[in-house]
Amino acid sequence: MGYELPVLVVEDSFLIAASLEETLLEAGRTVVVARSVAEAETAMADQSFAAALLDYMLPDGESLPLARRLHDGGCKVAVISGVDRAVLPEDDAIAAQFPKPMDEREVIAWVDQVMQVVTLAQASAGAGAGTVAPA
Fold first, then answer.
1. Residue 19 host element (H or E)
2. Phi, psi of 101 (to 5 degrees)
3. What whole-number distance in Å separates Cα of residue 50 and Cα of residue 48?
4. Crossing angle of helices 37-46/64-72, nearest 10°?
5. What is the pLDDT confidence band of residue 3, given thresholds at 50, 70 and 90?
């Protein structure tokens, strides 16, 4: 099996970020946590991600531009937000939306689906396939 790309969690609430990180680690995933748009941009400059879980409203702005950059690089993006779904913009960069409070089992199931697709792409294309270049 090839190298598994990490999951990016961008969440300004310490408790929610810590809970997501713990749940993903328990599920065997590698996780990178950022607490702001700026921290996420720094993480994105250094590595690629298979999946990203983004809070929509962050202290330094909305995460939609991050979602678009991640999507353009091949990363699947889910938005986790307390904002009403009707308020969130429709955008091709957003593959899934989860409300707050969220059911972490649903989030893990979505991440697992994304990872299966990436693993299949790596297996069918050979070593090094299915990676996402940093934005």
1. helix 14-26
2. -70, 150
3. 7
4. 10
5. low
Report how far Cα 68 is from the mean position of its chain's Cα atoms.
12
Other beta carbons less than 10 A from residue 10's beta carbon: 29
pLDDT bin (cut points 50, 70, 90) of residue 118 is confident
Q: Are 72 and 49 in contact (CB under 8 A)?
A: no
Tokens of 106: 């649903």
Name residue 20's amino acid.
Answer: L
Tell the CATH topology of 7-125: Rossmann fold (3.40.50)
Give me the mean pLDDT over the 96-117 stretch: 91
Q: What is the pLDDT of residue 131?
A: 46
Cβ atoms of residues 7 and 49 within 8 Å: yes
Helix (H) or strand (E) holding 119: helix 104-125
